[in-house]
Fold:
Amino acid sequence: MSPTPSLAEIRAILASVAPLAPLDGHAHDVLAEIVTCREASPGEVVVREGDSDRAMYVLASGHARVLRAGVELGALTAGEHFGEIALVAGGVRTASVVADAPSVLLVLDEQCYEALVDREPRVAVQLLREIVTSTSSRLAKMNEAVGVLLRERALPRRVELEVSLDGERRRVRNGITPGELLPSTIGDAPVVAALVDGRARSLDLPLGGNCTLTSLTTAHWEGQRIFRSSLALALLEAARRIGLDVRLGRSLGFAQRVRLLGEAAPVEAAARLQVELDRLVTADVPLVRERLSVLEAEDYFRREGAEGTVRLLETTRRHSVTVVSYGDVFALEMGPLLPSTARLANRYFLEPDAPNGDGQHDLLLVFGVPGHSRTLPPSAPPTERAVVEEGRPSLPTARRARDVSKHVGAMTEKQERWLETLSVRGVGDFNHACIGGEVAPILRVAEGFHEKSIGRIADALTEARDRVRLVTIAGPSSSGKTTFIKRLKVQLQVNGITPRDLGLDDYYVDRVDTPRDAAGEYDFETLEALRLPLLQEHLSRLVRGEAVRTARYDFKSGKGDPEGGPAFRLGAQDLLMIEGIHGLNPRLVESLPSEQVFRIFVCPLVQLPLDRLSWVHASDLRLLRRIVRDRHGRGHGAAETILRWPSVRDGERKHIFPFQHHADEVFDTSLVYEISVLKVFAELYLLEVPADHPAQATAERLLELLSSWVTIYPDEVPPTSILREFIGGSGFSY
Structure:
């Protein structure tokens, strides 16, 4: 809108304002001609508390704050009005209105109203009647709300609060929401929640005490979780509206699987669901909350056929729960969600997924927000480089997302199958099994599955020993790689094969030659930090059976010696093994024929759903493992570990996950029972995080996750278990 709106714009604005909208077209034409326009600069007081001017104002453009005695009562945006009572009844202004941005106001003052009485008495009477009617309705609602408040609260409420926002102390009314005080976006990242004294809270939940308030956006990993959960809840609602039966699957980090039930064709289903989800987002549907007793919630979810949620509720110690919805599909509230759907706009897309184990094509709900981009590093082969940014990706990127999904699905199918035979389909089922005395059988089966899988990988390597000379192993932090490698070596030796190690750390370039990252720090994770030509030469010679004196790197001096390491050659029954972050990157071993290399991806993958909306994320399991291990073995508190986690994850996204589809074998290190064991240690460590610490939002969410699981003490965890790498007591030396 221009600084001075046209007559047509003024008429349209007046016709949309609540007290004026019921008037007829002639009345709107007359009012548009007699109102005056006033411009206000940022910080300018439009109306001052204590003044006695008689005028009604409509904010045509801009933004303003309403204050009383310096206490912020709320905000005004374009199209809103104030002062109508002063126009018809006079009196002293009870609040001030201050412009926050360049603004234009339409003013209907006493002089204009008197001219209206002289020129168009019928319109003046209509205007008076609508103002009185509108004011009476608002007062009635206010009285009703106050009555409810008085009945529900015996303790007195504070009238005003003090909020620290961007370093500024502001006095605001009690009950104001964070969404009224915070921006909707910061840069290109949507604000999805508030950090109230460091704790993540929904934008629409009223504040009730003095606090420090900051924005939480999707640039933060906790904001990404909130965005994903909100989008998934909106998708469930969209599917219900078009009669599509879907179930949410596990997360792939940058996307979430959507299981199609019934006979829906995936391409058609993706298109229909995309249209309906877009419609839901455009309508800006508000989040609905309902507080139910546990018995009421069980009855509702049982009628909905959500038996997993019912089973979870049956093992909770709570008396009541909150359920949330963007319409008719409710789920348990597990944390903050977006107050309405509009902030999801243009930040997602749906694609048909690769066929699952049943031969069905599901869907992928791909996220397109800051923090979810998937740019491959320069070390990636040029044919694989692609990016997922906001909106729909390029075709190669969508194809790569489906390839990753297919690969992950194939590697998790067997473990999902045996969990099904144990009737463990969710956290609620697991809790029931533990309460029923089935802990030991579940533990033995889980560990037996690991042992059998490791043995199968060793057998595959033994069968291929005539051609495979090198095994590369990679996996993200706290995935259990160390224990896996030790157990794999045992199985290989049982088969008559001698594993030989080659450390990538000894092939670092001199520190002064190490590439630097965007912050100017040494980047030891990039492939270019290695003496790649030297490494590839040594590998080629070793697999040909030649004796090679390997390299050595002195971390103290930061210098490497290309021939400072031990000399050895591979015998007929030897197998060279390399473990490192670049183990799946084809460029690492591009000097070798592909048939001579066997790549293994190690990561916890199969996790259980909590309810129809929320799943346990594998990254949360790894973080819990790391929190416990770092506290036990390194003396690092949970807060310190949590703050380092984003940089750890960034390295994984750059150097490991983009190449996981190159793996010849995948070992899923997850153990269905381990969160119940980790809870024994992690709960205390997370409670030690200070309330105002930057790690508090993550600590609080993980504590909420742990509260959903029964506790299992570690006595029966075998010494060879991968879990022992993190809780201690392992039979292996590390």
Remarks:
- Residues 502-572 form one domain.
